């Protein structure tokens, strides 16, 4: 019997997403009946890492609007017929990062994914729900089926992870410092991906995919905090307005730069003010509209259908 083919398509600035994908593939790579190939996507014009504050916020409008960017040519052998495609990605501004979003819009990407089984691996701060909805739509459009989603987040409180991720992304400092924990997904959570990979492999081999997501969730593959659902809903709505406003002027123009600076000031301020406020609102909602909020949480723990209960 010929070996089963697995393709890992990923992008990573710091290497975190690569480590997550690597852990997930442990059991597949150790089994000679599988061939695992990695395709690291690269943009033609790279994004800085660490970022300057300006370049970070300047990337927002086009990212949020999922405007495709040019990617470097893919490897010659990427266009094979795969038994499983692992899409390992990170959200940027509540949207799949531009490299991933562009890949999903290329003809090669669409062709490669058509009718395939897909595992989505997410490595982020803590807001991935809307990005996954956007990925789900693109995958559904080519008849690809998500068999499992694993969303790894930074489990520190929301305002703490805003500080630590900005320290990491803007200054390159990921390690813990003073009262601040290390930024990003914890090593233990990354290591846990090997278990998620083994569970996925077993489910594929026994053709028991229906219960897979539920079993993964029981092990912590997707954990959803109700107040972050509320926060992300508000974020998606305000980002769609702000991306139109900041992106409404040509890149490099004085008017655009001024709008980027305004956004740079307002976004962190909003997070710091909204975060504690939403904790209170969601505690209230959990009492008053518990069923609705829990229905949202259940929806985002699964992989379909395509319409969230009350929209993101
Ligand atoms: C421009 C930018 C925007 C980001 N926006 C989000 C976001 O909306 N939600 C989130 O949870 N994480 C966000 N992150 C964190 C990333 O999802 C990711 O965890 C981090 O960049 C490390 O990924 P890497 O593997 O590419 O190094 C953002 C990162 C960058 C660089």
What does this structure look like?
The protein is an alpha/beta fold and 312 residues long. The chain folds into 2 domains: 4-224, Rossmann fold, CATH 3.40.50.360; 230-292, no CATH class. Helix content is 51%, strand content 12%. The protein has helices at 16-24, 26-29, 53-58, 60-64, 98-105, 107-113, 129-141, 158-171, 187-205, 212-218, 226-246, 254-288, 290-301, and strands at 4-10, 34-40, 84-89, 91-92, 95-96, 117-123, 145-152. The chain has a 5-stranded parallel sheet, with helices on both faces. Helix 11 packs antiparallel against helix 12 (254-288) and helix 12 (254-288) packs across helix 13 (290-301). The radius of gyration is 19 Å and the shape is globular. Flavin mononucleotide binds at residues 12-14, 16-17, 56, 59, 90-94, 123-128, 165, 169.
What is the fold's blueprint, element by element?
Layout: E1 4-10, H1 16-24, H2 26-29, E2 34-40, H3 53-58, H4 60-64, E3 84-89, E4 91-92, E5 95-96, H5 98-105, H6 107-113, E6 117-123, H7 129-141, E7 145-152, H8 158-171, H9 187-205, H10 212-218, H11 226-246, H12 254-288, H13 290-301
Helix pairs in contact: 1-9, 11-12, 12-13
The structure holds flavin mononucleotide.
């Amino acid at each position: 019997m010929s070996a089963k083919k697995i393709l890992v398509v990923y992008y990573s600035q710091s290497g975190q997403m690569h480590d997550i994908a690597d852990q997930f593939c442990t059991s597949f790579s150790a089994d000679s009946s599988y061939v695992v190939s990695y395709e690291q996507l690269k943009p033609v014009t790279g994004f800085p890492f660490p970022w300057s504050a300006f370049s970070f916020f300047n990337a927002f409008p086009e990212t949020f609007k999922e405007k495709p960017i040019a990617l470097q040519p893919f490897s010659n052998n990427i266009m094979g017929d795969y038994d499983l495609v692992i899409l390992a990605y990170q959200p940027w501004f509540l949207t799949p990062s531009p490299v991933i979003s562009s890949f999903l819009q290329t003809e090669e990407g669409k062709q490669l994914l058509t009718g395939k089984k897909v595992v989505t691996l997410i490595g982020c701060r803590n807001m991935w729900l809307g990005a996954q909805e956007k990925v789900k739509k693109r995958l559904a459009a080519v008849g690809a089926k998500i068999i499992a989603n694993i969303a790894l987040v930074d489990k520190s409180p929301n305002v703490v992870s805003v500080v630590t991720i900005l320290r990491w992304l803007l200054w390159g400092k990921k390690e813990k410092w003073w009262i601040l924990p290390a930024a990003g997904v914890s090593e233990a959570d990354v290591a846990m991906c090997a278990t998620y990979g083994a569970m996925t492999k077993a489910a594929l081999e026994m053709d028991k995919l229906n219960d897979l997501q539920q079993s993964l969730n029981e092990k912590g593959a997707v954990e959803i905090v109700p107040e972050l659902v509320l926060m992300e809903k508000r974020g998606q709505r305000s980002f769609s307005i702000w991306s139109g406003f900041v992106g409404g002027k040509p890149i490099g123009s004085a008017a655009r730069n001024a709008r980027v600076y305004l956004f740079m000031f307002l976004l962190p301020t909003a997070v710091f003010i909204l975060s504690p406020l939403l904790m209170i609102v969601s505690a209230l909602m959990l009492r008053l509209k518990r069923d609705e909020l829990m229905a949202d949480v259940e929806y985002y723990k699964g992989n379909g259908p395509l319409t969230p209960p009350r929209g993101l």
